[in-house]
Amino acid sequence: MVDKDIVLAKSSAVKKHIKRIKDLPFKDFQEFQNNSDYQDILLFNIQLAVQNCIDIAAHMISDENMGIPGSTNEMFYLLEENGYLTRDITEKMVKAVGFRNLIVHEYVNLKLERVYEISKKDIHDLEIFIKQILLKI
Fold first, then answer.
1. How many CB atoms lie within 10 A of CB 71?
2. In the chain, which ranges are continuous DSSP H helix?
3. Any idea what the CATH number is for the domain that residue 108 is in?
4. Of 51, 56, 123, 131, which is the most exposed, with the fewest CB atoms less than 10 Å away?
């Protein structure tokens, strides 16, 4: 059985990191591009928000005996197969994990335009992930 307190705590952490991202005061891409502090804060909070989503997925898969995923991405497919996520959000979470991996392992390959775009649009995918999970537990 899923420990709701763990899922709620991790969900709260995701929301906190998303709020930090949304609260950054840059007005446009140029201002973001010219401020390494904004870049660092944004990347750090994206990394932690996605990691908390991964932690939620791992916890649920373990507690519900959904199997042993062969990769982090597979965790989200297992959640989808077990009725926790829609196909659309599964694919978006797989992309989020890929971006998190770029942050952690290949920082020099990041394109600031993409980072900026994620902060303005794609970050909402993590909120949808949390909503879908919380509806099912």
1. 10
2. 4-23, 29-33, 36-63, 72-81, 87-105, 112-117, 124-136
3. 1.20.120.580
4. 131
Cβ contact 55:12 at 8 Å? no
Residue 107's pLDDT band, with cuts at 50, 70 and 90, is confident
For the purposes of burial, counting CB atoms within 10 Å of the CB of 93, is it exposed (0-12), middle (13-18) or buried (19 or more)?
Answer: buried
Angle at 94 between CA 90 and CA 95, to 5 degrees: 120
Residue 67 tokens read as 């199997």
Q: 9-45: per-residue pLDDT in tens?
A: 999 999 999 999 999 999 999 999 999 999 999 999 9
Residue 108 pLDDT more than 80?
A: no
Tell me which residue range forms the domain holding 71: 4-136
